[in-house]
Design goal:
Rossmann fold; 7-stranded parallel β-sheet; 260 residues; alpha/beta
């Protein structure tokens, strides 16, 4: 038997909305012992989501790059059960050109902030969760002790103009996937990454419907924006399929982004 979600504790960063929220709901539907949401909650939905989903969900408001907040998420997850699942959905997608229209170079702080959240924050949660996963009882015939799913982006491969910081951060997530999988293999912990294409998440919901429709039509098939439950469905399969390890899966309807 491969890894089962039922009875396992999980952490979902960025779980207050979008892809993360859909993943939280999927985990609960599949019988998780409990899920901790770690989220900066810029949309103000964290408490609402946790309240709606009941006492199996704990909301921790904080930044993934904050060691104290990430440690609190781990501690809360351990109160709910043994921590077997981590899904790192938290991220920012702000775009800026390296040199602005007025010839001014982009601030170094901007680049650092994006890389900090998307790459350093992902690593921060992994490094704090991994020791507890290593101490788990092995499950299934292969002796698994945990599954870590990170979220990159197709921008890691085809970053558009203005996405230099975003592409670099997500490329880093892709690059560390195989290394982490190799390091944790002796402990029975798998590491996978999903690189979503264009999904209907809060990042896009501020756009006019015509713009979102136009973006969706760029996708070869299906010619629409991805739906968060479709992302969550892939997370479920990764968790349950023991041979998925050390790889990045594009979830993008075959789109290949143009330069602009």
């Amino acid at each position: 038997m491969d890894m089962e979600i039922k009875g396992k504790s999980a952490i979902v960063t960025g779980g207050a909305s979008g892809l993360g929220e859909a993943t939280v709901r999927m985990l609960l539907d599949e019988g998780a012992a409990g899920v901790v949401i770690l989220d900066k909650d810029i949309h103000g939905t964290g408490e609402k989501v946790a309240s709606e989903l009941g006492d199996k969900v704990v909301f921790v408001k904080g930044d993934v790059v904050d060691e104290e907040a990430a440690q609190k998420a781990v501690d809360e997850a351990l109160k709910l059960g043994k921590l077997y699942i981590v899904v790192n959905c938290a991220g920012v997608g702000t775009a800026k050109k390296v040199v602005g229209k007025d010839g001014t170079p982009v601030s170094l702080d901007f680049f650092k902030e994006v890389v900090d959240t998307n790459l350093t924050g992902t690593f921060n949660v992994i490094r704090l969760a991994a020791p507890h996963m290593m101490a788990n009882d092995p499950v299934g015939e292969d002796g698994e002790r945990g599954v870590i799913i990170n979220v990159a982006s197709i921008a890691a491969f085809e970053g558009q103009i203005g996405q230099v910081a975003y592409s670099a951060s997500k490329g880093g997530v892709v690059a560390m996937t195989i290394q982490l999988a190799r390091e944790f293999a002796p402990n029975g912990i798998r590491v996978m990454t999903i690189a979503p294409g264009i999904f209907d998440t809060p990042m896009l919901q501020a756009l006019p419907d015509k713009v979102k429709e136009s973006l969706g039509k760029q996708v070869p098939f299906p010619p629409r924006l991805g739906k968060p439950p479709e992302f969550a469905a892939l997370c479920k399969h990764i968790i349950e399929n023991v041979v998925l390890n050390g790889y990045t899966i594009r979830l993008d309807g075959a789109i290949r982004m143009s330069a602009r």
